[in-house]
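Consider this:
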Amino acid sequence: MRLIVIIPTLGRSGQVGRLLGYLGGQTRLPDEVIVSAPDASHVDLPESCPFQVSLVFGPKGLAAQRNRALVPSLGRFDIITFFDDDFVPSAEYLQQVEKAFVENDGWAVVMGTVVRDGATNAGLTWENAEAALRENEGKKHDGPPVVDHVGAYGCNMSLRSSLVGDLRFDERLVLYGWQEDIDFTSQMRSKGRVVCVTAITGVHLGIKTGRVSGERFGYSQVANAIYLIRKGSVPASFALPLMLRNIAANLAKSLRPEPYIDRRGRLRGNMLAIRHIAMGRIEPEYILKI
C-alpha cells in the first residue's frame, strides 16, 4: 500500500524540520510527506530526507490546510496519515498503521494511543517524548487491543483513502478548527470502523505557540459543538458533555488559572458563544471578528 503523511503547520518552522528528520527513522518510511502551511516561512526543511517532501501553501486554518493536502493525495495513495506538527510517533508507527489497514478491510480510520499528551499540561519536550516512548516500548496495554471511537483525535489519524470520496474538512471551523477532526472522521463511520489500536503509540507535545487566543478558543469550545450537533455529524451525547466539561473547567480555574492557559479569556469566549446561541446565532467563523 502507498502511504502519505500530511503535516499541517503554523508558526513552528523548527518543529516541522525536526519532525521531518525524525520520520526518517520510521521502520516503514512514508512514500511522501506533504507539509501544508500559510507560506514558506512556516517550514524549515532538513538538509535531506529519505522520502519526497512536498509543500502546499494557502490561507491559514487547520481545516483548510488539511484539505489543501488531502485533495491531491486522493487516488495517489492508499493510506493518508495526518500528524500534528508536535506529534512524535513511535518508530514502528507507520508500519503498524499499514498492517492494520491491510489486515482489516472494514476499518476506515485508525489512530494510535497517545501515551503522553502535553495538551493537558504546560507541554512536553522532545526529550520527554523520546523517554516516554522508550518507557512504553514492549509494554503490555491494559484493556482491549482495538477500541471503537465516535471520531479520531487529529494529532494522529490515518484514513483509508478509497473511502474518503467527496468528504472534506469543514472550513467553517476556522483557524484552530476545534473538533474538525471529530467532525470529519465521525462521518467516515458510515463507511467503516473508526478505531484506536492501542499498540500504535506516540506522544503529543502540546506546544502552545501557533494557537488561537483564549477568547477565540473559548468561543469555539461552545459554538463549534452546537454547530456540529445541528449539522448532524457529531452526536449530542459526545459534543454536549465535552462542551460542558470545558465550560466547567474554565469557570472553576478562572480564579487561579494555570500560567499556560488563558482561562479567563476562554470563559469570556464561552459566555459570548452562549449568548449568541441563545439569540439563534450559530456561527463558528465569528471568531475571526474577535
In short: The beta strands are 3-8, 32-37, 52-57, 79-83, 87-89, 107-117, 146-148, 156-160, 193-204. The first strand starts at residue 3 and ends at 8.
